[in-house]
Amino acid sequence: MTGSFQVRPLEEGETPAYEEFLKENSRLPLYGIPSFLRFLEATTSCSTHVLVAWSDGAIVGALPYAELRREGIGRIVNSLPWYGSHGSVTLCRAARSREDTDAIRRALLSDFVAAADSGDLLSATMILLPDEEGQIASYDAVLQPIQKDARIGQITELPPVDGAADGLELTFKQKTRNLVRKSLKQGFSEQVTDDDWAWKFLAETHAENMAAIGGKPKPESHFRAMRETLPPQMRRLSVCMSDGTPTAALLLLLCGDTCEYITPVIVKDFRPRQPLTFLIWMGMLDAIKSGYRRWNWGGTWHGQENLHHFKAGFGAVDLPYSYLIRAPHEGVVKLKQLKSQLGTLFPNFYAYPYAKLD
Predict the structure, then answer these.
(1) In the chain, what is the greatest distance between 2 CA atoms, to the nearest angstrom?
(2) Cis before 80 (ω within 30)
(3) Given Cys at both, which of 21, 78, 143, 354 links 59, Cβ 3.0 to 4.6 Å?
(4) Is residue 300 situated within a structural domain?
């Protein structure tokens, strides 16, 4: 079937078919679905686009991307921006030859390059899905990146619903099992709610937690945008209560058969009692009972040993993935000039490896 497909931008009336395609064919479908793309537009002021490959009236491949243009400065293109997002190509799982699927992949990538290169480009970054990492040679051939970066994806495969608690605990390391058991003896209760007070607690505690480690928190406006753009059934916000006091919260996003671990927060004074461990355990059990098959912890930077160890304790398996950065010479020159302003000009977009801009 090589050559019997057409690549073009997604049209407005085709979004239901596209969303269904992602949920059926991607292990991490959240990052390309229309509601998440609307969320990106709301939080970053970007424009989003989807390239789709059609064959015999069905979608057989897709590639979402976003671009942010600053007048008089230039454009940065990401597939995709925002914390821990993935972009790259999703292909139909239906039986096709390797040659067919790679032809579709390369055609989508070629159209992406043509769109990205169309005037005043500073840089374009492709953030691979872990499942696409094995096909990086095709990405290199088409994108011709001049820089690369890397993260470690971590995913826990959830056991079947039968004997969920025992099966789940067996995937954990011994220390994590002990912490779970400790958390279950604290008299905590879990409250799953979409009420304003819970979102306020999440945002404020997140800001406090990030300030304590010198990190940059997600703005409160991003949490507000989630509630405005993502349907309620995609959001699960749980709060750990101790004698009526909120002690920790956990925000998950649910899509396809995957739970996305988005924002965990904890009140410092309660940390020894493991309220966040309690919420993770309860969230995983509920995910299993609701038919979800995997728990995506998101990307971990190389060098974040403690965070990597924490996720691995809950049975997470490493799935490395790459950032491929394409940029014209004049774009790199301008990025170097703008280095100190990039976080303000292009918030939540990946521009270029900062160490290479000196």
Answers:
(1) 64
(2) yes
(3) 21
(4) no
Are residues 113 and 230 part of one domain?
Answer: no
Distance, CA of 130 to CA of 132 (rounded, Å): 5
Encoded tokens for 223: 């949490």
User: Residue 217's domain spans which residues?
Assistant: 159-292
Q: How high is the pLDDT of residue 278?
A: 98
Note whether 276 and 250 are within 8 A (CB).
Answer: yes
Residue 333 lies in a domain: yes
pLDDT in tens, 54-107: 999 999 999 999 999 999 999 999 999 999 999 999 999 885 677 789 999 999
**Looking at the structure, do residues 178 and 275 belong to the same domain, yes or no?**
yes
* DSSP state for residue 215 in the 8-state scheme: P
- β-sheet bridge partners, residue 51: 9, 63
Q: How many residues does the chain have?
A: 358
Contact between residue 293 and residue 257 where contact means Cβ atoms under 8 Å apart: yes
Model pTM score: 0.95
Instruction: List, for residues 115-134, the tens digit of each pLDDT value.
Output: 999 889 999 999 999 999 99
For residue 3, what pLDDT band results from cuts at 50, 70 and 90?
Answer: low
Q: Provide the 3-class DSSP secondary structure of residue 211.
A: helix
Among 17, 37, 23, 85, residue whose Cα is nearest residue 256: 23
CA distance 142 to 106: 7
Q: How many domains does the chain have?
A: 2
State both tokens at 234: 């995609």
Amino acid at 53: A
Q: Is residue 304 part of a domain?
A: no
pLDDT attached to residue 299: 96
